[in-house]
């Protein structure tokens, strides 16, 4: 029993116990289990600590601070509470046999079973959403059949080399961008053979002067041919996402992509269903033009997370066609919010992966 006048002290256990009741919506686990609680300092009844997020979520920091503070307030006799929220993105494990690149913490392949499902649009907007949440992000446009990132991003210039050896990425809307389109003219691609293309993409990946990226999104060619297969083997991928529309055919193709990554031991971080519905701009009625729940059903059948659904929205098409994706054109709009939610869920999935430890151990050399 505490005596009158005696100063009661709060214990770290009580602090952890209180925070373990706060579950992060994107991580789907609490901050203690996610090892996000750092630097707990207890001074009598006053508590200060940091919640270190493993994924960029600037727009959520205030909300998280308030939730953690409210949970701590329930501790009997607690005094002043100070909660800081910050983000630390680290390098996570990639598929066996390859090592992460020094200037890129996490590479995520964005793929689709077939063309035209909105893979490039999704890549551009997710990259911009991650950047808006505070991450350093790049895009490598590897879609040999239609490298559309430069035009989606409103870029007309070609990259240059400041050291005569490596290419400098083009900086646009805060992103670092490189495209296979810069390396070929419009007639060449059909004449290129798969090994040449793969080599060119690997070269772009390794010889671009990426500047300290948290995430690099690769806009992959659609389908599951040789190029995709080799890239899944050679590029150090933290994971992949599959973009699909809800149509049966698209889902069927997307399934092949999913299986290709699984076979290559690339972690499938989730499925994004694009053009999932259409909201009538006049009456607000929701129509499922291309069918319903294709991505969701696929994620259930294959045990892969659904990262979210993007409705068919004219602003998405108009803004991207104008070289200013919707996330930068209307950052406070509904569509930007949808891309931000998907981006946070995706980055949270990355954050839950084991950290890369390949740099910790020196290579084993045979004794003389
Ligand atoms: N959610 C959406 N709402 C409206 N239009 C969209 C949406 N997603 C994509 N689009 C439009 O659909 C067209 C195809 O999109 P995009 O180029 O991103 O597809 P893709 O899968 O990358 O195709 P490809 O592999 O052939 O390059 C574009 O005109 C784009 O603006």
Automatic annotation (TrEMBL):
CDD domains in UniProt: Mrp_NBP35
Keyword line: ATP-binding, Hydrolase, Iron, Iron-sulfur, Metal-binding, Nucleotide-binding
Keyword Transport: no
Pfam families named in the record: FeS_assembly_P, ParA
GO cellular component, one term: cytosol
SUPFAM superfamilies: Fe-S cluster assembly (FSCA) domain-like, P-loop containing nucleoside triphosphate hydrolases
Domain MIP18 family-like intervals: 13-83
Organism: Oxalobacter formigenes OXCC13
A GO molecular-function annotation: ATP hydrolysis activity
Gene Ontology annotations of biological process type: iron-sulfur cluster assembly
Keyword ATP-binding: yes
Protein role: Binds and transfers iron-sulfur (Fe-S) clusters to target apoproteins. Can hydrolyze ATP.
Protein name (Swiss-Prot/TrEMBL): Iron-sulfur cluster carrier protein
Superkingdom: Bacteria
Subunit structure: Homodimer.
UniProt binding sites for ATP: 113-120
PANTHER family cross-referenced by the UniProt entry: IRON-SULFUR PROTEIN NUBPL (PTHR42961:SF2)
Family: Belongs to the Mrp/NBP35 ATP-binding proteins family. In the C-terminal section; belongs to the Mrp/NBP35 ATP-binding proteins family.
Lineage of producing organism: Bacteria, Pseudomonadati, Pseudomonadota, Betaproteobacteria, Burkholderiales
């Amino acid at each position: 029993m505490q005596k009158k006048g005696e100063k009661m002290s709060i214990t770290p256990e009580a602090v952890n116990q209180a925070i373990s009741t706060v579950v992060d919506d994107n991580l789907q686990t609490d901050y203690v289990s996610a090892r996000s609680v750092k630097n707990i300092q207890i001074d009598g009844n006053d508590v200060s600590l940091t919640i270190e997020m493993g994924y960029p979520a600037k727009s959520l920091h205030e909300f998280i601070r308030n939730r953690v503070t409210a949970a701590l307030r329930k501790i009997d006799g607690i005094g002043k509470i100070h909660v800081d929220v910050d983000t630390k993105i680290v390098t996570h494990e990639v598929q066996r046999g390859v090592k992460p690149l020094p200037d890129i913490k996490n590479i995520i392949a964005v793929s689709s079973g077939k063309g035209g499902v909105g893979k490039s649009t999704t890549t551009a907007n997710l990259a911009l959403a991650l950047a808006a949440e505070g991450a350093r992000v790049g895009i490598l446009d590897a879609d040999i059949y239609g490298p559309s990132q430069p035009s989606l991003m409103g870029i007309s210039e070609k990259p240059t080399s400041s050291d005569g050896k490596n290419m400098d990425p083009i900086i646009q809307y805060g992103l670092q961008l490189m495209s296979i389109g810069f390396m070929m003219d419009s007639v060449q691609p059909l004449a290129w053979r798969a090994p040449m293309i793969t080599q060119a993409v690997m070269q772009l990946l390794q010889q671009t002067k990426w500047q300290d990226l948290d995430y690099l999104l690769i806009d992959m060619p659609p389908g599951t041919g040789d190029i995709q297969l080799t890239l899944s083997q050679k590029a150090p991928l933290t994971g992949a996402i599959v973009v699909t529309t809800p149509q049966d055919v698209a889902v069927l193709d997307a399934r092949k992509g999913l299986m290709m990554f699984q076979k290559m031991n690339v972690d499938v971080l989730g499925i994004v269903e694009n053009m999932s519905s259409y909201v009538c701009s006049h009456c607000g009625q929701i129509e499922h033009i291309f069918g319903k729940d294709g991505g969701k059903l696929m994620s259930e059948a294959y045990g892969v997370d659904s990262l979210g659904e993007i409705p068919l929205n004219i602003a998405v098409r108009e803004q991207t066609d104008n070289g200013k994706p919707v996330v930068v054109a209307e950052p406070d709009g509904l569509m930007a919010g949808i891309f931000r939610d998907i981006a946070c869920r995706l980055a949270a999935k990355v954050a839950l992966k084991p950290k890369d430890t390949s740099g910790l151990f020196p290579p084993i050399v045979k004794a003389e």
